[in-house]
Amino acid sequence: MPARRRKIKNRNREKKSFPLKAISYILLILIPLFLLLYVNITRKYWNGKDKISVAVRNPEGGVDVIIFDPVVEEIVQISIPGNTEVEVAKGLGVWKLGSVWELGKRQDLGELLLTRTLAKHFKFPVFIWADYPASGFSKGRMFDTLKATFLPYSTNLGVGDKISIGFFSLSVKNPKRFEIPLENTGYIKKLTLSDGEEGYIVSGALPQELAVYFVDPNFEENAFRVGIKDGTGVYGLATDMGSILEVMGGKITSIEKVDGPENVNDLGCEVRGRNNVSDKLTAILPCIKVEENPEGNFDIEVSIGRSFITEY
């Protein structure tokens, strides 16, 4: 009898342990699937395949533009001193770069003012911004990366973007991480600013060795021809705006001056394009996307009008 009881008890234990094991296996499968689904749902900008650039305010008052490039598996950080004099977007005048983040808040424009200023003044085609904890993505230390991934801070990155960038950052070896102080490139020079203090100003055109980091793969894979319709009436404005597209890899093949109310004088900026490049341009520039094909043989057509003068 005792032996029979032991057999019955063993069978009962096996029956109880079987569903527990099954549940454990199911959870081991479902949890990663749910995590993957959550990351994909909460991604806003990064697909994990194309390079992405993020403007990060650093605690010293400067701005770091961090480029994450999964194609070559590298992270590049371009550091801009906070005492660099810049022409702020939206016609807000000349300020030091370190003041633009707070200026955007005071003007109810938010951190977007920083990325628009980087595009206008430095020709850096950036539309993603983040506060200083995000600099941990470029440091190469696990603790900093975890803080950048999971701490709450001001950014337009989605949760899925932060997790994806965090995983990518952890996979990049230190020899593939580069920091480029902008003052060492010749793009800015040191002098006495208008307020009597020492600082930096932009000197000349964006060097090619910097521009290459911002080439958009969608432009790079195709010979993108860009046409601009200029109804601003301001000499050189279309060329200045077009240089941002050229940094991305586009080829400006036409700048057409237009006039008259039937054209674009009263428009801010409209973009017509055949793929997601037009979506990216409307994030970088104060433009709206029009669901129409460009005229002629252009891949992208940008129309700017008089109100673009104060929005740019």
List its salient traits:
alpha/beta; disordered N terminus; Nucleotidyltransferase, domain 5; about 300 residues; five-stranded mixed sheet; about 20% strand; single chain; 3 domains; Alpha-Beta Plaits
Can you describe this structure?
With 312 residues, the chain is an alpha/beta fold. It folds into 3 domains: 1-41; 52-208, Nucleotidyltransferase, domain 5; 215-311, Alpha-Beta Plaits (2-Layer Sandwich), CATH 3.30.70. 36% of the residues lie in helices and 22% in strands. The chain is built from 10 helices and 14 strands. The protein has helices spanning 2-41, 100-106, 112-122, 142-150, 159-171, 208-211, 217-220, 237-248, 277-284, 308-311, and strands at residues 52-57, 63-69, 74-80, 85-87, 94-96, 128-130, 177-181, 188-192, 198-202, 225-230, 251-257, 269-273, 288-289, 300-304. Strand 10, helix 8 and strand 11 form a beta-alpha-beta unit. Helix 1 (2-41) packs across helix 5 (159-171), helix 2 packs across helix 3 and helix 4 (142-150) runs antiparallel to helix 5. The chain is globular, with a radius of gyration of 25 Å.
Order of helices and strands: HEEEEEHHEHHEEEHHEHEEHEEH
Shape: globular
Q: Give the termini distance in whole angstroms.
A: 91 Å
CATH fold assignment of the largest domain: Nucleotidyltransferase, domain 5
Strand content: 15-25%
Q: What is the mean predicted local confidence, pLDDT?
A: 86
Q: Give Rg in angstroms.
A: 25 Å
CATH class of the largest domain: Alpha Beta
> How many helix segments?
10
Q: Mind summarizing the main beta sheet?
A: 5 strands, mixed
CATH architecture identity of the largest domain: 2-Layer Sandwich
Strand order of the largest sheet: 6-1-2-3-7
* Annotation, overall tally of beta strands: 14
Contiguous uncertain segments of 5+ residues = 3-8
Overall structural domain count: 3
The portion of residues assigned to helices is 25-40%
Structural class: alpha/beta
